Every structure is written in C-alpha cells, then in structure tokens.
User: Fold this.
Amino acid sequence: MMPQKKTQDVVLTAVWGDNPVFRQILGICSALAVTNLVLNTVVMGAAVIFTTALSGLTVSLLRKWTPRVIRMMIEVLIIAFYVILFDQALKAYWPDMSRNLGPYVGLIITNCIIMGRAEAFANANPPLLSFVDGFFSGLGYTIVLCCVAVVRELFGMGSLLGMPVPFFSSVLWDRWIIMVMPPGAFFTLALIVWLARTIQVDREPKKGGVT
Amino acid sequence: MSLGSHMLHLSVILFAAIFTDNILLARFLGMCSFLSVSRQVKTAVGLGFAVVFVMTFTITLDWFAYRFVLQPYGIEYFRFILFIVIIAAFVQFVEMAIERYSPVLYHNLGIFLPLITVNCAILGASLFMVIRDYNLAEGIAFGFGSGAGWMLAIVAMAGIRERLNNARIPKGLQGPGITLIIAGIMALAFIGFTGVLSGG
Assistant:
C-alpha cells in the first residue's frame, strides 16, 4: 500500500498542489507563445511531458554516479538530448508543425520546470517515482496552457482545434482580435492564475500567498 | 546595398527588436526572471544590464559557432547543446568578473545571475538568429535590441510594481497574477509601435 499512496501523493502535488504554473509561475516562457492555437499547445505540451518524464527518469538513474559539482551541466545535457530527439522527430514527420512552433521546441531546454523537477525531485528519488513526477508535472503544465489556448482560440478565432464552433464562428460573435495577439495570452493566464489561487487560498488559509 | 540603406536596414532590426517585436512582451521569452526579479527598480536595472551584455556577446559567439563549426560539418541539430554551453560558460565568466569588480552588484543580483543561463530569452535570441538567417551585423543588432527591449520591459514593470505596494489587490491576484495583467497592458502599449515601422 505504501508505495501506491506515495505515487498518488506525487501525482496530486504535481498536478494541483504544486502545479508549476499556478504555484511557481515557472516555465511559461517557452510555451505562452504557442497558446494561440489549441493544436500547437497540445504538441508543445506533449514535448514538455516527454522531456520532463524521461529526463526525470534518466537523472534519477544516474544520480548515484553524478558528481555533485557538475550535476547541473549533466542535467542540461540530458534534457537537451531528449529535446533534440523530439525536435528532429517533429521535423521529419510533421514539418508544418515544426515550422509553426519555430524555436520554441528548442527552448524547452531552458524551461525552468524541467530543470526544477530534475533538481528538486529526480536528484533525490528513485527512477520510477521521478518518471511519474516528471510526467504529471508536465501534464499539470500542459493542462493550464491548454486552458489558455482554448480561451484564446475560441474567443479570438471562433474555432477549436481548427474546427469552427457553432455560436462563436457565426456573425453573432464579434471576434476578439486581442486574444490572437500577445496581450491576450497575458490576460488569460492572469485570470486563470487568479482563479486557481483564490480556490487554493480558500482551502488552506494558513499557507496562502506565495511570493 | 549602399552603406546608407544598410544602416537603415540594421536600425529597423534594432528598433523592431526593442519595440514592436519585444522579446518579452511579444515573444514571451525570459518570463521567469521577469516575474520574480521585477520588484525593485534597482535590481531590475542591474539584471537588465547583465542581460543586454550577455545577450549581445553570446549571440555573436553563437553566430560564429553556428557559421564556422555547426554548418561546415552539417550538425546543425547540435545547436541547442552548443549554444547552451557557450551561454553557460560566458555567464560563468561574467559572474566571476562582477564578483571581482563590483561586490555590491554581485550581492544584489545574488542567485539571479546563474539564472541568466536558463533565461529563455538568451537562448531564444540565438535560435531566432539562426531561423531568420541573420548575418553577423544583423545578429548583433538583433541581440543588442532584444536585450535592450527586455531591460526596458523589466525596468518599467519594476517601476509600476514599486507603486503597487500601496495598492489593495485581491489575495489571489497578488504577485504573479497582477504582474501578468500589467504585462498584458504593456504588451498592448508596445503594439502601438507597430505603425511606426510599417508607416515609415
């Protein structure tokens, strides 16, 4: 029972309690830019999940043999390895998407979440648990970004995943051009963070108000 | 291209990087430090200068590395790793230099100097340089402009946030929430510059 409980804890903390976006506002750099379309966001999210999960696993596997002083360097190399894999695969099998995402896939390397998980979790935990933690941290992050993307694409373009949505694509709906432009991403994310934090602050009145 | 039109071309790249295509407000790069280090104007200015400096030099180094190492051997896909290593080494060097010559600045920037290594804006600028196929002069103009644009945004944000200390903000919106909203309004304002370029 014990290990299962622990895994559950890790999953819950990763997705909700410690959600990288609400709680720590980390790593939105490399991904806000692609939230103008839901499809782009999903692919980007898949890339992040792939990288966090596998780099967590690898860092954890190697943790006993990694000298403390150069561990950051090693972690960066491990992360870069997975990002290059994903980037090359995308370029080979889905060149249009690769062009859409532009430099942002490569920028996953500097995504603070992945480094953060490697440093804070994978360094001190067994491989399988690190894999789960990485996977769900990536998932929590992807869910938030998908929320942003859904709002932006729906209000800005009247479609979801490229398909027109009945009411929003008709003449009755005046498209919010601002949602397609960069400010839309800031406003949407701000509102989502506000909502999530308000709920969290209500639940745990003692611990609220991080930074 | 004559010298005059060449200079004009470069200044357009510079201007675009600072205002219309601001790396932070239009490209969302360098958000982490933007959100966490924008509480005081003084620190923001320090970090801003560090970013301008690091970005201008790393983009130059990365340009040479890409042109003379990666391209000749056809191993462009190694650019992520090579660029990161160059940036990390350069930041390490700057950190040692600041520690030696300006302990005050070193004390103020504290933990954030190493964070420049994982500042997406730095790597992002280099990757944009590759994608847009800039030559050396264009790359330097772009790197300097991006750094200056980032600094402009973070210093303006720090100025606003210092005033916000006295404002009553809903609990859930404090910190990152309100900062994101201000960033959105700033991004709107920067979009206003677009006409300057296309009109001219």
